[in-house]
# Entry
Amino acid sequence: MSELSERFETHDPGEKQAGEKLRCDACPVMCYIAEGRTGACDRYGNFGGRIVRCDPVRVLDYALESGAAVVPFGGEAWAGELVNTGRRFVTAIGSGTTYPDYKPAPFIVSQEVEGVDLVTVVTEGIFSYCGVKVKIDTDRHIGPETATVRAQGEAVGHVTTGEYGSQMLSLGGVNHLTGGSKPEGRVTCETLMDLCNRKPVELAIDGGATVVVEAGKPPVIDGTAEHRMRVGCGSATIGMFASQWRGLVDEVVVVDDHITGVVSEHQAGKVLGWEDTGIRILGRRSTPGRYFKVSEPGLGWGGTTISDPLAILGDWNAKKGARQGLSLLMVSTTGEQFAYYELDGDLRPIEKPFPDRLRKSVGLIEDNCEPALCTVLFVGGAGGSLRAGVTENPVNLTRSVHRLETYVTVGGAPVYVWPGGGITLMVDVTRVPEGAFGYVPTPALVAPIEFTLRKDHYLALGGYEAEIRSVEDVLKSGGEYFNDRATGPAPSANPWPPLAQLQRVGRR
Ligand code: SF4
# Structure
């Protein structure tokens, strides 16, 4: 059992007595915590007779040029300087959570940026409605659509519709977090937190593969690390490279589970004057030179089950151009598998040593493949009570976000906010400083969230004017939970969160 699992299992706030202990009120669990100990989530502890947030508030400094994505954070304890060395951004990482939400957010920070008075409202949100979307760059079949995805044997999500060159998983969500058994909720929460914090997680798919997913790293499928993402489907590969093969080989087949391409029949080959070869593909012909379902999906060539590409060929037709000596290249969509054949006197393809003249074109397919990676997007709904910590009239915040007057970030990273109701956001976890995500054993994920807007807009929304503080004051005095402050350079890929958008809004 993992450390997190043990804490879920052993934690029972109902059994705890106040006594010498202090009550943490930062989430509905309401732990009573003994001196020198931490609560169930490890984010808060009782130190020196007071409840303390155990991690420092992270402040990003846009004056420090990192030259690289600043992850891990690598922040240093605040050294005490008050002179602003540049533009700073108080993230919600380590800021603490206010519970219940009608209390103002832990930090409401004002700052003038290029002549615009801005306010950033900072809180660690508790997300019962959240999950991750995982994109796994691979041709390989990892499991049928809708198949259950498990971690530690518990259902944590499902396989969803694949994308171009990638398999997709949808994990978490309120039904797995709260609607199943206690172990299901606990393991779902642990899985989401680990994925968001960029740790490797092993996932087993019912009727499919076992995949190790780690954000920003290649997927490991059934024990084998994936290296390349396909250049395109079989048809697209034919379209891209048909001219390279002209004059070097009589026929090319790009084997693909989805759309296998045949150059002599494909429009690209026809335009180049490619001769008929009498080839026959055992699959469902879609349009000329494009075949579906040449095999079942699997871990073989081009995401099929096959290890011998000849298995997708029928008899060759001499009346349509087949002849002894006709040359054939078969290649997968990543260029990782390839073979060369020539037809014998009985029009059977016989494998021959791979000719040097074709190596360049196969190498070109490989060169055009991008590195295979796992992408993890955190998806959370901030449309509920969390908004009350920002403004006394929560729906005003939602409207402001959708009017682009309020810019939302997660740990300083830009997010995509879904259109429609509520504030449902998505963020690439590799743009969020490491270790930013936590949990509470309700179970729910804890994620940093910041709302930045012009000060006049904030006040018009019904914001908590009396709680507004300067960045310098935050650095000097901290907040309700007595934790340290740490400054570090802002990730170079993340812009100063609100500036461009909010300046635009200001000019309206
Ligand atoms: S789970 Fe964490 S945040 Fe919630 S009451 Fe316990 S220590 Fe505080």
Summary: The first strand starts at residue 22 and ends at 23. Residues 24, 26-27, 29-31, 39-41, 43-44, 440-441 surround iron/sulfur cluster (CB under 6 Å). The chain is about 15% helix and 30% strand. Confidence is low (pLDDT under 50) at residues 1-5, 7-18, 65-74.
